[in-house]
Amino acid sequence: MHKVMIILAALIGVQSAAQAKSKYPATRTLRISDGTQFKPKSYYPEFSWDTTPRYFMFGDKNKLLTKEQVHFIAGQTDFICIEKSHGLKPLGAAELGAKHEAKAFRKVNPDMKVLFYFNAAYAWPYTSYNEPFTRENVEKKPKIKKLLVSHPKTGKLVDRYGALCYDVLNPDFRKWWVNTVAKGVKDSGCDGAFIDQMHGNVEYRKDKKDEIEKAMGEMMKALKYKMGRNKILLANNAYAESARYVYPVSDAIMFENYARVKSGKESLLAEWGEMLRNAKAGKISVFRLGVEGTWRGHMQPNMPELSKEKAEFALACYLIGAQPYSYFLYSWGWKLATGPLVDYPEFKKPLGPPKGPYKRTTPDGWEFTREFEHASVWVNTETREAKITWK
Asked: Rounded distance, CA 349 to CA 328, Å?
């Protein structure tokens, strides 16, 4: 009986989300905070201010989603990414995990936009495509080593987090990578790709910084062309100056904020400006804020309770800078067990379009306010306090 109730509730959520898309006229829904209109591309997901617009990104290496989990997530968003290792154990390769879930979500919501994950710097050993880039295979086939980064002092292959590192300066690698990611998107039946790590492993070749940045831009441009004009290219953290050649060819940009230093008061203010820049350029923004008090390598034991306590601050930070086609991602990690299955009631409350841009209470202060159709938002990014008053 309990499972039946969960499925019914999720189904109602999916229906409500679909029905809400015509609630507000396009002139209000897509009005940017500077008064101009957002111009979405035909292959973007549908966007609605009815409730908090959300993007989900998750994976579980050991298992696939249950029916109940698919319905729960589909009841809250129609824009997701299947993470890098999902479905590896039950299916043998991550691209099969992405394919399985894309099909499952479209059964619930045919309009669901699903992205395939791939990394531009690290050869994660989760897809079948990266099998050549294991240490064992590299030793057997020395030619492969030319496609990877070696440490400038030792000559040994660089290993980051258990993965060998791609050499974006090698044109043969770039050709392989573009063909491989496009194949992954096609094989998995996804609507585009989420590309992680824009840095090109520049840490080990700082004297070639400019070359690496240009090569990253060329590679991403080639991928966009290879995938096809109706596929979404989402680039993680590509708003940075170092990704200036990637930015123009990307449809969407994520603000990852994986560490506390990345979500400081100055950083948040800058990112609100970048979200405006994205909207004026017709690009999607994904604003991700980790749970306050947690960051990479510093997880707290009292989850998901802490995430619920801290949700108001994270949501307020998103709402202050949100533009049309800005999506909110809230989690304390990238696994299925780190947020996507938590029920946050405030994220489902009626929101409505913003009534205008945010206001800074004093020219040099860190208190900000913004009005929405059904919510008044206040946040102090210096004291890390927030209050959302729902109308």
From this structure: 14
- The pLDDT of residue 18 is 40
Tens of pLDDT along 103-129?
Answer: 999 999 999 999 999 999 999 999 999
Asked whether 285 and 54 are in contact (CB, 8 A), the reply is no
Domains, the chain, in order of start with CATH, read 2-390 (3.20.20)
Is there a contact between 338 and 303 (Cβ–Cβ < 8 Å)?
Answer: yes
Q: What is the DSSP code (8-state) at residue 145?
A: G
Residue 42 CA neighbour count, 13 Å, CB half:
2
With H, G, I as helix, E, B as strand and everything else as coil, classify residue 368: strand
Q: What is the mean pLDDT of residues 360-365?
A: 96
Tell me, rounded to whole angstroms, the distance of Cα 133 from its chain centroid.
Answer: 25
Calculate helix-pair angle for 311-321, 265-280, nearest 10 degrees.
40
Query: Rounded to two decimals, what is the model's pTM?
Result: 0.93
44 in Cβ contact with 251 (< 8 Å) = yes
Q: Which residues are paired to 289 by β-bridges?
A: 330
Q: Minimal CA–CA distance to 134: which of 159, 164, 155? A: 164
Rounded to an integer, what distance in angstroms lies between the CA atom of residue 6 and that of residue 41? 34
Q: In one letter, which amino acid is 295? A: W
